[in-house]
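Weekly modeling sync, notes
Attendees: S.R. (lead), two postdocs, one rotation student

Agenda item 3: backlog of single-chain predictions. S.R. asked that every request posted to the team notebook include the full sequence so nobody has to chase files. The rotation student volunteered to paste the first one in as an example of the format we agreed on. Action items at the bottom.

Example entry:
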Amino acid sequence: MRWAVLFTSFLLLSIIPLSTNVTASGLNISSGIIISGTFNDSTESTTLTITIPETSDSSFLDELRTTDVKLLRVSKTIINTTEGEFFYDLIENFTLCNRTMLNSECAGHTFNIELHPEFPGNESSGYMLASQLPPAFVRPFQITSEGYINAHSDNNWVSWHNSFLIAVTPIQLDNTNVVPYTWIDERISEIIAVENLSASYSDGITDLTWDYPESIAMNHSIMIYSHDSPATRENWNSLTKTIVSSSVAAGTTNYEINHSSSTVEREVYYSVTLLYETSEDTRFLGSNTLTVPVKEDNIAPLFVGELSATFNSELDMTTIDWGAGISDDDLMINIYRSQMHLPMLDTNNLVATVDSSLSSYEFEVPMGEHRQSWYAITLVDSQGNENLNLSESSPVSDPVIESTISSSQISNLEAERYSDGTITINWDDTTQSPNAIAKIWRSVSGPISSFDDLEELASTDVSLEQYSHNPLNPVDQAWYAITIEGTWGSGSIPWHDDSLTSGVNSMENSFRETEDEIDEPTFDVLAQVQSTSGAGGEISDGDMISLGSMYEGDLIIISTSKVVENISCHDIAGQGSVIYSQTDWALSFSANQSGEACYGTISDGDDEIGFTMTWNYIENITVVDDEGDEDETEQDDEPAANKGSKESKETIAGVILSIIILALLVYLLVMMKGPKYFEEE
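Predicted structure, as returned to the notebook:
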């Protein structure tokens, strides 16, 4: 160990004579404080004796109790004679008298300091007390061949000497220019130990390395120790230590300590000694023990908390939030994004490493992606320790759907039933996933908005846009939905997109799987048609009614058992316009209407029946007597007067008959309006 320049203090003693008289000038070379020393060869220790002068000067004694003084050491071997430099070693700081001492106890006080020099071979050392460290670098002297110190003028050192130097080991004055120094001879045996011990830790392994000195005997084994505090010559016997290994072969220059089978988190020191049959050098005078600990840590830090992930479709951004950060410069947070929930994180899924003090992170989702993502965070320390195994308490988000595409669903979902009972489901493929699979679902309990109480019918290629099946138990009301399983964009793992949108990929209205019912008429009004010619009958929905021959003056009457909203007859030959209409319980019209057919309807609220009537209208033929036609006159054997009388009688008789029939029909209709009981079929 190098020592700072100090030796000029002894030079200054030739200029300023020592005085045995105690003065009140403070702690300086004239204070009368004496320091002397001896060396013990067997223990290789130096004992310094410090003596306080007898004095009643209370100010001086107070200064001894309150002022920290420095014990400095300088040796011949560390003097650079070429440059004229020497270096000092700061041994210790202390007060010359305890703060609790009385003046009478402090005056004349003597105490010892035991030191163990830490250099091998024969050495001579000088010791001094100072109230302040000397300048770090000066060249006020040189050492002569006789071992004397030639004095040189240096105002800085003179100033330091006068103000801060307190005492030195005994010196012998020669003249004002040369001061022979009285050294303490310290003879330290040679070091028998390895050199340049170093330690490093990485990935659960501590690697120790060292060098061997030249020409060392190899009849030894290597001892490796670990301990929680630095090892010194003074504390070795009392130091709590662990033998790491006692069987390392001589000449070995490295050793690995594997911590993979155990957990470790500590700062630790290592020492390496050479064990001979009768000796082990544990003075630690060289570099066979660590002065700075190595940090061994294979325990991963754990994050405690909750984690959420929210996707913003407008910004194409997912916000990962863990609530609160951690103030620890030794820690960082790793953020992972996975396409599936795994028991162990994959380092390939690492998306960001952020400062542990943060509480959230925004991840920009790439364009063209549609995926289900899980997010997880871990803590990683400066040693690279990280727990990738996920547990129930690990901060893992619920899955979040991130989509930067226009559509991931099918559209225009429809169903069709064929006569053999086959149900065909049709859709349009708008999924933007070329290899997607369509999962087809069926419900008989209502529209499909969740995956409760469902039947999965099949999985098929979505690009087929069709699926057919014959339900084992067809129902009057069924609902269908289609979800997609596939990959989108850069996604490599297929996943089931179970999102359901009513009217898009989930039927809003029910579909009838059974055969269509034939609606039976529920018309509860009795109706009939009657003509004055005597033809007619009851009317049912869809009837074809022929009334036969009808003559001039014949009427057609359509009547009901109660008042209805409308009775009408439509022109069949024309454009279907209404030619007769009546809001009542009866409709009558003349049979001489051209067309000789009509389509009749009877409406009563929501109920309606329809029927068709036809008849053959026959006009009366009148023979005209033309005076200029001789053939007509000759063929008419009956006198004209008799003929006219006969036609007149026939006309009168027809009118009377029509009146009688009409009266009869009116009577019947009046009777129909009364209470009537009908036998149900």
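Discussion: group reviewed the output briefly. The mean pLDDT is 80.
Action items: rotation student to repeat for the remaining queue; S.R. to check formatting next week.
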